């Protein structure tokens, strides 16, 4: 296992180009299972462990996958010879559940390991299962696996009792090859869901309403191969904006979509940052100032993203004053707090609210990453702290950030990777 060594108090400045969005690419890879003829080519693939895990899972099913040197991936689903998603792969990456809908839609059967929980919560998949049952699939759960089968999925109206990103994605993929019309109410509106729908429509699906709370999918006979470029990662964008802001620095972010991070930009302006945007670039300048505290409430898009909560908590930990962070999406997403407090932060968590008293500065310390975004927030805290911070278990960060230390070094950060 590796660790990252961060020497703090360096003001970051420079330019960073954002990679493709993990949470758009993962469902697209799974959707490729449904192709009847032709190849799927997905461009702008980020270099992430979660992408490798997903392609390993699909390869184990028999899919033929080639990746070229510019990180474009080519998938041929005609060689698929089984519909089994084993525990040893699914346990490392919950989003493997996204093969369930496509396998049922195309092959009429699937045996997929229950994903199990992770550090940020129990993360059940009951909404996925209930909705697929409503579409006519038979799903039995025993020995830690979902055993699913169906003759042909039926288009129905699904009203999600709470918004679920991958729940919406599983059902909209299943609906592509179902009989009739599938209507999803209370659908997730994240840009990654919209990108998946646009990708599927390029393959011949008939989806409308993406980006609103009601998505309508008209089932078609088959889907054909297509080429598609995944959208840029809005969470990587936000993370690098805060890397500049927390060190009082400035940054130009390229190849992003500024409208997808509107709420993050609004909060960073409130924190005192100067921000200038075009459609695909964002310039932030903190002008060496200490941030003003900002209250945050997370929720489904377009509310403040839960995947940016830990990073904003880090910024608030050195702000000049008090702030509150309300986490409404996951039940245990404050694991980074006790680690930040070891660095001298003053954060108290009561139920789903973190109350923060900003400190002049933090002190570097050895800390432990517990999940993907918590790891990022500890690196951000280390960038702002006096002295050296060692972030352990950074396999979490490698799941979701493409060469994070290389990109941070480009901005002037003193950060190195060493074996634990
Ligand atoms: C997706 O997870 C993202 N992952 C997460 O990103 C992100 O944090 C989350 O959406 C919220 O935006 C991918 O897209 C691969 P949910 P997902 O279903 O779909 C509850 C990252 O850092 N729920 O929207 O698993 C659930 O427990 C990751 O990149 C059920 O109760 O999240 C949670 O409280 C972390 N039953 C809430 O709904 C279900 O069947 C929202 O979860 C499904 C979800």
User: What percentage of the residues does DSSP assign to strands (E)?
Assistant: 25-35%
CATH class categorisation of the largest domain: Alpha Beta
Q: For this structure, what is the CATH homologous superfamily of the largest domain?
A: Enolpyruvate transferase domain
Mean pLDDT rating: 96
Unreliable stretches, pLDDT < 50, 5 or more residues? none
Backbone shape: elongated
Order of the strands making up the biggest sheet: 24-25-1-26
Rg from alpha-carbon coordinates: 21 Å
Helix count from the secondary structure assignment: 14
**Class per helix and strand makeup:** alpha/beta
Terminal CA distance = 6 Å
Distinctive features:
420 residues, alpha/beta, UDP-n-acetylglucosamine1-carboxyvinyl-transferase, Chain, 2 domains, four-stranded mixed β-sheet, 14 helices, 26% strand, elongated, binds ligand EPZ
Question: What do you see in this structure?
Answer:
- The protein is built from 14 helices and 26 strands.
- It has 420 residues and is α/β, with parallel strands linked by helices.
- The chain folds into 2 domains: 204 residues, UDP-n-acetylglucosamine1-carboxyvinyl-transferase, Chain; 208 residues, Alpha-beta prism (UDP-n-acetylglucosamine1-carboxyvinyl-transferase, Chain), CATH 3.65.10.
- The strands form 7 sheets. It has a 4-stranded mixed sheet, covered by helices on one side.
- A hairpin with a 5-residue loop joins strand 13 and strand 14.
- Helix 5 runs parallel beside helix 6, helix 6 runs parallel beside helix 7 and helix 10 runs parallel beside helix 12.
- The longest helix has 13 residues.
- The radius of gyration is 21 Å and the shape is elongated.
- The chain starts with a strand and ends with a strand.
- Ligand EPZ binds next to helix 1, helix 5, helix 6 and helix 12.
- The site of ligand EPZ has 23 residues, from helix 1, helix 5, helix 6 and helix 12.
């Amino acid at each position: 296992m590796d660790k990252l060594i961060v020497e703090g108090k360096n003001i970051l400045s420079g330019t960073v180009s954002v990679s493709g969005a993990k949470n758009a690419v993962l469902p697209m890879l799974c959707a490729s299972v449904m192709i009847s003829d032709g190849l799927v080519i997905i461009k702008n693939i980020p270099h992430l462990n979660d992408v490798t895990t997903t392609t390993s899972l699909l390869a184990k099913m028999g899919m033929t996958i080639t990746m070229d040197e510019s990180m474009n991936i080519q998938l041929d689903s005609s060689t698929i010879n089984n519909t089994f998603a084993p525990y040893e792969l699914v346990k490392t990456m919950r989003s493997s559940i996204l093969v369930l809908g496509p396998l049922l839609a195309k092959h009429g059967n699937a045996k997929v390991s229950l994903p199990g929980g992770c550090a940020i919560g129990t993360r059940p998949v009951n909404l996925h299962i209930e909705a697929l049952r409503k579409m006519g699939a038979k799903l039995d759960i025993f020995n830690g696996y979902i055993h699913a089968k169906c003759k042909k999925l039926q288009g129905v109206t699904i009203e999600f009792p709470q918004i679920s990103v991958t729940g919406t994605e599983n059902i909209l993929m299943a609906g592509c090859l179902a009989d009739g019309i599938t209507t999803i109410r209370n659908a997730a509106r994240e840009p990654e869901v919209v990108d998946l729908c646009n990708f599927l429509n390029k393959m011949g699906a008939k989806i409308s309403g993406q980006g609103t709370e009601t998505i309508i999918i008209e089932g078609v006979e088959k889907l054909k191969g297509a080429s598609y470029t995944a959208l840029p990662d809005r969470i990587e964008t936000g993370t690098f904006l805060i890397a500049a802001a927390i060190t009082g620095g400035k940054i130009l972010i390229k190849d992003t979509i500024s409208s997808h991070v509107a709420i993050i930009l609004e909060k960073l302006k409130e924190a005192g940052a100067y921000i200038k945007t075009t459609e695909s670039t964002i310039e932030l300048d903190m002008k060496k100032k200490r941030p003003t505290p900002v209250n945050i409430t997370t929720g489904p898009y377009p509310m403040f993203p839960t995947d940016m909560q830990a990073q904003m908590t880090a910024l608030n930990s050195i702000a000049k004053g008090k702030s509150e962070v309300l986490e409404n999406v996951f039940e245990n997403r404050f694991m980074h707090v006790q680690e930040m407090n070891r660095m001298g932060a003053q954060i108290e968590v009561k139920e789903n609210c973190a109350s923060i008293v900003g400190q002049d500065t933090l002190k570097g310390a050895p800390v432990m990453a517990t999940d993907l975004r918590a790891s990022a927030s500890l690196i951000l805290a280390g960038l702002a702290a006096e002295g050296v911070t060692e972030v352990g278990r950074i396999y979490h960060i490698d799941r979701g950030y493409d060469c994070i230390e290389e990109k941070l070094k480009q901005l002037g950060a003193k950060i190195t990777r060493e074996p634990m």
